[in-house]
Specification:
- Helices cover 29% and strands 36% of the residues.
- It has helices at residues 12-25, 37-44, 94-108, 123-131; strands at residues 3-6, 51-56, 62-71, 75-85, 113-119, 135-144, 150-159.
- Strands 1-2-3-4-5-7-6 form a 7-stranded mixed beta sheet.
- Strand 3 and strand 4 (75-85) form a beta hairpin.
- Helix 1 packs across helix 2.
- The longest helix has 15 residues, at 94-108.
- It is globular and about 40 Å long.
- The protein starts with a strand and ends with a strand.
């Protein structure tokens, strides 16, 4: 059984492990540098309007993480979303359950809409956000990642 709950500081180690697994595989995230639990805790506490959820199995293993925080340009009205699932665990409903929790929490926090920036070469991510009801609204061409790789990001929005 899959349980979704608000993430806590004690989850930082497991979240960092999951993120590092996805970063090491590459190809789906703009993140290129490994993170540690201190980084994750700092992100979780970076803004009082940040909302983090984890999905875990019966044994307590974190299978997915999703968070929103205020968009750097739109601040109060827009939540910037990030979603990660453990490698090999996609298609189990992790993303669906995480988004239901995030969507409800975002409405309660007063966000008007959620922004997703997905690498154009991340077919799984594009399908995921499209299947949640996100709609295209823009793109960022020539986005340079920290490792120097240039990608296109597609912008999708979900009106709350």
């Amino acid at each position: 059984m899959l349980t979704v709950r608000r993430a806590a500081a004690l989850d930082a180690r497991d979240i960092a492990e999951l993120l590092n697994e996805v970063i090491a595989i590459g190809g789906t995230t703009a993140m290129t540098d490994a993170v540690d639990p201190v980084d994750v805790q700092a992100w979780m506490q970076s803004d009082p309007r940040a909302i983090w959820h984890v999905a875990e199995d019966d044994a307590g293993q974190i299978l997915g993480v999703q968070w929103i925080d205020p968009h750097p340009e739109h601040r109060d009205s827009v939540g910037q979303i990030s979603t990660f699932a453990r490698s090999g665990k996609t298609g189990l409903g992790i993303g669906s359950k995480l988004f239901e929790a995030t969507k409800q929490a975002a409405r309660m926090a007063g966000y008007a809409w959620i922004n997703a920036e997905i690498r154009a070469d991340n077919a799984g991510g594009l399908i995921y956000y499209q299947s949640r009801g996100f709609e295209d609204w823009g793109r960022i061409d020539g986005y340079v990642m920290r490792n120097g790789q240039t990608v296109t990001k597609l912008l999708k929005r979900y009106d709350l």
